[in-house]
Design a protein that fits this description.
It contains 3 helices and 5 strands; from the N terminus they run αβββαββα. It has one domain: HIT-like (HIT family, subunit A).
Length: 135
Amino acid sequence: MADTIFTKILRGEIPCHPVYEDEHVLAFLDVGPLSRGHTLVIPKQPAETLDKLTDESAAALGRALPRVARGVLAATGAKSYNVLQNNGAAAHQAVLHVHFHVIPKYDDGSGLGIEWKPGKLEGGAELAKAIAAKV
């Protein structure tokens, strides 16, 4: 995996404003926040996309995310938030190191804006069977 800004943060080469850290996870404030309290949660394991994480790192992220979300809400007073995670350039991943965004949403409209264009599920039974066979 190539060096990223996140691997440099993990090595201490670039400073950050940490809010949570354990053996497997680091969470810190985003320097280009969409709203006050926008926090990034990253695994210490270098992996470009979620599917490349070990079960141990994935479980650690799963434990850390609710803790970080509770902290962000308590510290900012926000009542709502988004958790965003992208995998691959086509999915808008800008830093090729797994990361989750915890983005508070405020009444002033700051935070993440989403336009959802739902399609129609076709061939659901076959697709579900094919995915289940690979899990």
